[in-house]
Design brief:
Elements: E1 3-7, E2 10-12, E3 18-25, E4 30-39, E5 46-51, E6 57-59, E7 67-72, E8 77-82, E9 91-100, E10 108-111, E11 115-119
């Protein structure tokens, strides 16, 4: 069974930085798109950033210029470098990936359980 496990969340002061990681494990043939989403208290889950297997990235307008998504395909890991954090970035951050677990099956979409980021003084 493919699993995604996030790490790196925590409490940070406004203006600070954090780096989130998400490692995929299990039977993996190929990982296509990897992405980060977030869900703030009382709000719906929203898109943050995505990275395709070709290295094409895209960001939500609210984080563009402050957050950077990157991936290490050798480690089946995606990262989210978050700079200039503000209280509005407080949320549970979820990893999402399209993973092909077998040569005989189409890719499937997986979610991690999330890691909490709190931006507060």
């Amino acid at each position: 069974q493919v699993q995604l496990v996030e790490s790196g969340g925590g409490l940070v002061q406004p203006g600070g930085s954090l780096r989130l990681s998400c490692a995929a494990s299990g039977p993996i043939v190929k990982i296509n798109t990897m992405a980060w989403f977030r869900q703030a208290p009382g709000k719906q889950r929203e898109f943050v950033a995505t990275s395709t297997s070709l290295g094409i990235t895209n960001y939500a307008d609210s984080v563009r210029g402050r957050f950077t998504i990157s991936r290490d395909d050798a480690k089946n890991t995606v990262y989210l470098q978050m700079n200039s954090l503000n209280p509005e970035d407080t949320a549970v951050y979820y990893c999402n990936a399209d993973v092909q677990a077998s040569f005989y099956r189409a890719p499937a979409n997986y979610w991690g359980k999330g890691t909490l980021v709190t931006v507060s003084s």
